[in-house]
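Can anyone check this?
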Amino acid sequence: MAAQYEITIKGLVQGVGFRPFIYVLAHELNLRGTVENNTSGVFIQLQSTEAQKDLFLQRIVNEKPSVSHIADIEICETEAKFEFHQFSIVASNHSCGDITRISPDIAICDKCLADYHQQSHRIHYPFVNCTHCGPRFSIVESIPYDRPFTTMKEFEMCSICNDEYKNPLDRRFHAQPVACNHCGPVYTAYIGETVINDYQTIVDKIAVTLLKGGIVALKGVGGFNWLADATNDEAVKKLRELKRRYIKPFAVMCNSEKWVTENMIVSEKEWEQLLSWRRPIVLLNEKRKLSSQINDHLHTIGVMFPYMAIHYEIFKKSGLEAIVFTSANKSGEPMLRDNTDARAYLLNSSDLYVEHNRAIYNRVDDSVIRVIDDKPQVMRRARGYAPEPIMNIDDVDGGLAFGAEMTAVFALGVGHQILMSQYIGDLSDYEVYEAYKDTLNRLSTLFHFTPQYLVCDSHPQYLSSKLAEQIAKEKKLPLYYIQHHHAHAVSVMVEYDLTEECLALSMDGIGYGDDGESWGCEVMKCDRIQYERLTHLPYVSLPGGDKAAKECWRMAVSYLYAIYGSLDMLPPTLINQVGEDKIHQLSRLLISPLNNQLTSSAGRLFDAVASLLGVCYVNTYQAEAAMRLEQLATTALFDTKIYSSHALGDWDMSSIFQGMLADIKDNVETAIVAMRFHRSLVAQLVAIMQRYANETNLNKVLLAGGVFQNRLLSELLIKELEDKGLDVYYPTIIPCNDGGVAVGQLAIAAARLNKKNDYA
């Protein structure tokens, strides 16, 4: 009898056609045994020679399904208790205590799109899918990933689908959402009191509504979306009123690569992201203006391709080339996923309301990507990414990290896996806070997770931290507080498996500091356990506290007062725009003993400069001023002047502001001043990082924090640091903004608990 091997393959190996792949490969190699899903991954029993086993494993690694990811392969040679006569697929085993990965939702594949047009029982069936595509995370309620544990359990397969589902050689073998026109979910449309059930009629109505400038509410994979003709300014204006999103840019879904080529500037790496199975929104530079109603004064726009069959059909029927595609909810509120709730809100506010009867268990928004330094940076991690885990060197089992507040994402620790939640939103909105708690309960149930310890931000007012304190008290669990910028830095260490001490530059809007002030531009020496704040952007007053983050002109006044001790240097344009009375009132606050809040925030520095240059006086959405300032600067790329060479490695904000004010007085083009500010800040940062690299003998530099969503700043800084011989680590799969904080929190707590002081 041949030897018997027990092989466990861990990673993203369920819901991606892995078992039928193994089955076909085993038959091709004339092997004997079984393959099954369990809660650990894919489990194979193989009876073969050692050479056959080695070839089998080699081909698994080299030929695995494109969407799958192998994290680990465990092999154990055992004694054969009986002889297998063939290779077969057996039912899933639920007894294993480990937790496998759950596939993210996958865009419709080309083969299924072809089936939509020609397969007899699936012609024009909008929910066509196979083992290589379709809903996954959005419909799964428990693991292992089998149909009874998904929202598809309500739909009994017809005989044709059942035969496909049971045939190991079929592309739909054990495709859990498999369905067709005879047995699957269906769309229903509502126009006032009129109900439409015929799919083709529904698509026709969607097309007509869009062409007439109407707004369509459409249920998708992870929630409801609003659609509008991207070339119709009045339609987009109407959508802004509905969503109460008056300036923040919209994303567009487009019909073809030709349209993208004609309207956008696209790099090879950006094409890869646009066309990937994840189908994210990718931030691109415009070649020509689509509509000021979509992205106002910005020249970047979020672009995505269709990822459901109905999206393709809408473009075909309407003839449109681009549609505004956004979540169907008021700004700041969570995505709607329940039909009853959605109907109550969207039916009367939309010109056409369309739902389907496949329940969404996990709401999930569209992901957002920006390519920086030729690497894709995940800015919003949601559909197509969640709930893929992040692997951590230390065991994080039982840890629950609550993240931050404005970009709420929590993380569960399962073994060495950090399971990040999908992007949820700003917890200051009550509905988002409730959605955050609901998502926490759902993911805990899904992954059979029971927390053993809790981790949160050290900010005493964060709602995420208050919730952590409440749960810690109720469940009598230990709670660990982690400094915000240390968490940012360590999230980068996690992505690159770094364990040794590094230098970190954390730049964001706000992070609660050890001294009680609002930090936001810190240079640290840190590892996964501890940190030392080496230097920081000089403190200035934060007049009005949180109000200063919205009314960014306040920071311009604050900086000039800090530098000159008066407001005589304020540009007339700023005074005229804001008003002398408001500025006078603020000046009184600046000298008041009640004004005792300070900040070292890089975000507030960008606000100050944007306001000083007349780019933005009030942030109507998060980081608006910084975005406008960056994009203005990119139009003056050939200007290389800096206001301070900063040779000694000390902070010198005075030179930067003096230089800008002189240029403003001399009527230098605003775009050039914006570029000089970026270059001057980079020059100072490079000098500072080089100085501390020499003093500490540390060569690895971590860049973290939401400010590094600024492509111009990031690419200038990365190049200059690397030219100085420093090794730069920049987050890509983990958001550099607060969406990545939970990863750092959990990794720090785990390192401290495991007392791994000898990493290096």
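Reply from J.R.: I decoded it. Residues 139 and 360 are 5 Å apart (CA to CA).
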